Amino acid sequence: MGYESIWLKRAALPEGATAPKTIAETIAQELTALQNLRDDMIWAYLVTDALPEEGYDIVVNDRKADILGGSAVGVLYGIYDAQRQLIVNGTVVSVSERPACPLRMLNHWDNADGSIERGYSGRSFFFDDGKLLIDDRTSFYARLCASVGINATVINNVNVRGDATWLITDRYLERVREMADRFAAYGIRLYLCVNYAASIEIGGLGTSDPLEPAVAEFWKAAVAKVYAKVPSLGGFLVKADSEGRPGPHTYGRTQADGANMLARALAPYGGTLIWRCFVYNCAQDWRDTTIDRACAAYDYFHPLDGMFEENVVLQVKNGPLDFQVDEPVSPLFCGMTKTNLMLEVQAAQEYTGQQKHVCFLVPMWKDVLRFRTYAYSEHDRVEDIISGTHRRGACGFAAVANTGNDENWTGSDFAAANWYGFGRLAWKPQLSAEEIAAEWAGLTFEDSTVRNVVTKVLLASYGIYQSYTAPLGIGWMCNPNHHYGPNVDGYEYDRWGTYHRASCKAIGVDRTTKGTGFSAQYSEPLAKLYENPETTPMKHLLFFHRLPYTYVLPNGKTLIQHIYDTHFEGVEELRSLVENVVAVQGMIPEKEYTRIMERFGMQLSSAKEWRDRINTYFCRMSGIGDAKRRKIYAVSEEDLVYPGE
Ligand code: GCW
Prior knowledge:
Alpha-d-glucuronidase, C-terminal Domain; 18 helices
């Protein structure tokens, strides 16, 4: 086929299998794949009303296994579970599974011309040159998604421009339907991103004011046309009033006005309107220390809680800024108890090494999911909220996808574990990072030593990446625009609201009530905890506080020494991680091994660059030397002091 079906490659489809057109055909193919994995067992399946729609039970009795599903999709998920068990463990045991999040969705930032915004794995396999691509890869993609329980996908970029604005018109709808049918055969619903200003750009109106009846009429007619052609469409995803995209603010209207107008057009067809909360002022003056981008989403949306239509879901990025290596959880999860919420994370490694660095994000996502919001008297974790525990309407979990048309789908072989892990967590947030890493390694590699090494590499990778990049939750410090590699002041005097404000004495933005007031957006006791550096989690210390380099951390080190130590140690830990993989060279297929080593080479040189730039910058800035006298590029030893010596 010219490309690899990564973690399912050992669940071989029947010889000559063609893209399934219905879910029944998919089940038949996957049952054969299952049979091929274990042909001495009898596999049977049944759809039963006794189970929730997407749920399944596997009941194993000696040599017979019954797969019961609440629907055909439930059965399919059960079959994938059995395949997984067989590949990873060699046996299958009885299980009973129900998905946690109702919506388990990928967001692709693919443009109609075939480029991918923040794509690190080649070009789009959905679009090329203004056309929709539908081929075997479409179905392989759906297979991979369905195998981890992903049930929704948005194929076009949230920045909807040019041709993509026309996806909801006759120009594309025939092909959109074909695409939707391909996905439906795997239980996946297609969603589209729409251009909020479509009423102007394709509707010929002079406005996209949500309260203007002609605008609502435009959308009603557009949606009617879309559903006449593509009845299975899940709905729309919208980025409005964000980074130059149009939105209701232009007309002095609220985010709720905009979202509700579109939601009403979708409601008669059962469509869902997903509206992003990534709204902030991206034309800030760096001189103005009173504006804090971190506050923006909550400031805009919290006053609107309870004012959204039932078929609106607000999609909230995990942190208040933008997919940095580590951010505190968005306070919107504390303050929107009357609104359907969806969590958005980024599997595409925009700020986490761009799929050149190994960075398994599941441990970070787990922290977000486990986060207690204190917004409810019980079941108040983010994972409860996005599972719809407190709401009737749709809720869920979305990841910005990290795929492209590279042979291995994700550029870095290890990055596939983030795609895989996202799906597994959306299905079952209680799975541990260790379980997910071991599952993925077990599915992807055959040798048990390799599986162990890979699991270890994945689990260590996030902490290592964190240690050699921007310290203690402060974020950014990367090169502007493309966001790869270190540049401490890259965003310091820019318009994006992303400042560290380092001086010769201190670093950080005071986001307590004495500063920008961001900490007060959280429920108690969180607000109080974040108010004080001593009770703020160390990994987010510089997100909330401005502190002197001599501040003593809970680990007994000064802030500056901690920066030096983590940066030196991070690179050394990375080196030893690479050595672990080198040690199993002969046990990994050569092509994969070569690819992995190439990426490690890039990661190592980039990690060193991060280490030296960060250490040197803060050494020169603070005039404080490294107590351990390691190599830092201070201009002159005479410039430095060594406190306590
Ligand atoms: O992280 C930023 C990216 C933009 C992206 C934006 C968003 C799609 O740098 O490329 O645009 O977030 O999430 O909308």
